[in-house]
Write a structure and sequence with these properties.
This protein is an alpha/beta fold. It contains 2 helices and 12 strands.
Length: about 150
């Protein structure tokens, strides 16, 4: 028996295959996910069609994302967008209940970061060697957990 995450992943894969074959843009519309949403390691270039609300974790790491536009507005658990090609956090959720993980990107600014993070915030090791400080993070986000910025 398939769970929702498997079904959604398969639907995203079908959409990507159809787009590659036809050149048409199709969007999967899911408003809310109760639990985790996992679209990692799919060569995604966009989060268009991602759910608006996710009660659990949202994993979009290890893709080819250059923007977080289309990301959920609220994530109850962790939001993990590490190892993409992001240069900004515009489009990130405004609220993340767990950890916000955005290391291994090409960030030059933290503008657009969630205003509220219930866990930790990790923006270390940017691919362009840009360094952020804990003070930089605290200017844009109220983080309750550990900040990993260097």
């Amino acid at each position: 028996m398939k769970n929702l995450a498997q079904i959604i992943k398969e639907e995203f894969q079908k959409i990507l295959q159809e787009q590659a074959q036809s050149g048409l843009t199709k969007t999967l519309r899911i408003r809310r996910v109760r639990g985790d949403f996992n679209c990692r390691i799919n060569n995604l270039t966009s989060l268009k069609g991602a759910p608006h609300l996710v009660s659990g974790d949202f994993y979009c790491h290890n893709n080819d994302l250059t923007s977080l536009k289309g990301a959920p507005s609220s994530v109850g658990g962790n939001f993990d967008c590490h190892n993409n090609k992001l240069t900004s956090l515009e489009g990130a959720p405004s609220s993340v209940g767990g950890n916000f993980i955005c290391y291994d990107n090409k960030l030059t600014s933290l503008e657009g970061a969630p205003s509220s993070v219930g866990g930790g915030f990790s923006c270390r090791d940017q691919k362009n060697d840009f360094k952020f400080t804990e003070e930089d993070v605290r200017k844009v986000s109220n983080v309750e957990g550990i900040i990993r910025a260097y």
